[in-house]
Design a protein that fits this description.
With 313 residues, this protein is an alpha/beta fold. It folds into two domains: 229 residues, Rossmann fold, CATH 3.40.50; 58 residues, Alpha-Beta Plaits. It is 37% helix and 22% strand. It contains ten helices and 14 strands. The strands form three sheets. The chain has a six-stranded mixed β-sheet, sandwiched between helices. A four-stranded antiparallel β-sheet has the order 2-1-4-5. A four-stranded antiparallel β-sheet has the order 12-13-11-14. Helix 6 links the parallel strand 7 and strand 8. Helix 4 packs across helix 5, helix 5 runs parallel beside helix 6 and helix 7 packs across helix 10. The mean pLDDT is 88. Pfam families: ABC_tran. GO terms for molecular function: ATP binding; ATP hydrolysis activity. Keywords: ATP-binding, Nucleotide-binding, Transport.
Length: 313
């Protein structure tokens, strides 16, 4: 997927909803688009899924040009919307069968056993992959939130899309359901070359992404792997404590090591510096622990800095 200088401008708007956004997503990767509410994420996804026309820019998805080949793009993408889009009164399989007919993947038949063998085998394989085989013929209204999400993913994968768009897929799910859903998404990635395009407010879900772009006010304000974002914007630290806190405090001051003292001592040192410092300390220690900053900390720092810069302009 290639996105170049994407712009979306609404009439009478003070600024562009999407303002010169560019990024590249390699096939088979997990790509995350992050940003606060109003950053432009939903507008970007709406454009990429062909439900909204861009003002300017160029987009290629699965080798097809958005401007001239949008029908081909629609046939090569799957979408799991933030809000469920299932028919509650149909069974899980009936929802999938209707989707298959609408996409023209298989001809519609009034019963599962009347459908082509290829359809039955594919649905059964995906249901097993996602752990919903036993519920395939039950009404969707009896499903939990996590089960509904899994069914939407099954439906979105039926036509073997090149790109699966997940717009806040775990919103409203309990922690156990979120964990289970991501286990299945990992299995989906492991069994195929499907590219996953994710937006989420749960930053821990992005830690294993191959690439991350952070948006604010319609622009990309940071991009890289999770590790790159954390390394470039935050610093690992060393946590120390001692039953002789006054002695440890005095020794750190004598060594000229900066620290913050709260429930423990936190020092902005990492890597080889840690071993060098520990060799020099004579105070007995009750705690030695390194703290690695999270992606959430890096994200908050990026967004906060961008908001401050905009206020100063």
């Amino acid at each position: 997927m290639q996105v170049e200088n994407l712009v979306k401008c609404y009439k009478k708007a003070r600024r562009n909803a999407v303002d010169g956004v560019s990024f590249s997503v390699p096939a088979g990767s997990l790509f995350a688009l992050l940003g606060p509410n109003g950053a432009g994420k939903t507008t970007v996804i709406s454009i990429l899924t062909t439900t909204l026309s861009p003002t300017a820019g160029r987009v290629r998805i699965a080798g097809y040009d958005l401007e001239t080949q949008s029908p081909q793009i629609r046939r090569n993408i799957g979408i799991v919307f933030q809000k469920p889009s299932l028919d509650q009164n149909l069974t899980a399989e009936e929802n999938v069968r209707l989707h298959a007919a609408l996409y023209g993947i298989y001809p519609y038949r009034p019963g599962f056993r009347l459908m082509p063998a290829a359809y039955r085998q594919q649905v059964e394989a995906l249901a097993e992959l996602l752990g919903i085989s036993e519920s395939l013929f039950k009404p969707v209204k009896t499903f939990s939130g996590g089960m509904k999400r899994k069914l939407e993913i099954l439906r979105g994968l039926l036509h073997r899309p090149a790109v699966l768009f997940l717009d806040e897929p775990t919103t409203g799910l309990d922690p156990e359901s979120r964990h289970s859903l991501w286990d299945y998404l990992r299995r989906v990635r492991a069994t195929g070359r499907t590219t996953i395009f994710l937006t989420t407010h749960y930053l821990e879900e992005v830690e294993e992404a191959d690439a991350v772009c952070i948006m604010s006010r319609g622009k990309i304000v940071a991009a890289g792997t999770p590790e790159q974002l954390k390394t470039n914007l935050t610093q690992a630290s060393l946590l120390l404590d001692s039953p002789e806190r006054a002695r440890l405090r005095q020794e750190l001051q004598q060594l000229g090591v900066p620290f913050q003292e709260g429930t423990v001592f936190e020092l902005p040192v990492a890597g080889p510096q840690v071993q060098h410092l520990l060799k020099r300390l004579e105070t007995p220690l009750s705690l030695v622990q390194t703290r690695t900053p999270s992606l959430e900390e890096a994200y908050l720092q990026i967004i906060g800095q961008h908001m401050l810069e905009n206020e100063e302009e």
